[in-house]
Design a protein that fits this description.
Oligomer: single chain
Shape: globular
Distance between the termini: 40 Å
Radius of gyration: 13 Å
Order of helices and strands: EEEEEEEEEEE
Number of helices: 0
Helix content: under 10%
Number of strands: 11
Length: 126
């Protein structure tokens, strides 16, 4: 059973950067599509970006384009979300999620992801 744990959140000033980690145990990420999501207070969980298992498909929320990128370690045990040029509107709890379907990459199909981490808080404030 795949288990995911996010880390790397914290307080950052506007314009700053953070790199979030999503560490996998119980299985490798290489056979799962990966999505990053976030949920701000009082708002629904929204997709930030996703990538299919072999990288054939990627999708970015408009708010993430040009600022956020996803990467993996060589062993495909950890996924990273690099966030640059952060804005106060990026303040949220960030979650990584995994989907069993290799080609899956959908930002709106939040409920279809099979595995979720517990989330890590990102606060962008001066």
């Amino acid at each position: 059973q795949l288990q995911l744990v996010e880390s790397g959140g914290g307080l950052v000033q506007p314009g700053g950067s953070l790199r979030l980690s999503c560490s996998a145990s119980g299985a490798s990420l290489e056979n799962h599509a990966i999505g990053w999501f976030r949920q701000a207070p009082g708002k629904e969980r929204e997709g930030v970006l996703c990538i299919s298992a072999r990288g054939e498909r990627t999708r970015y929320a408009d708010s993430a384009k040009g600022r956020f990128t996803i990467s993996f370690d060589d062993a495909k045990r950890t996924a990273y979300l690099q966030m640059d040029s952060l804005e106060p509107e990026d303040t949220a709890v960030y979650y990584c999620a995994a989907h069993r379907s290799l080609l899956f990459c959908e930002l709106r199909a939040v409920d279809t992801y099979d595995f979720w981490g517990q989330g890590t808080q990102v606060t962008v404030s001066s």
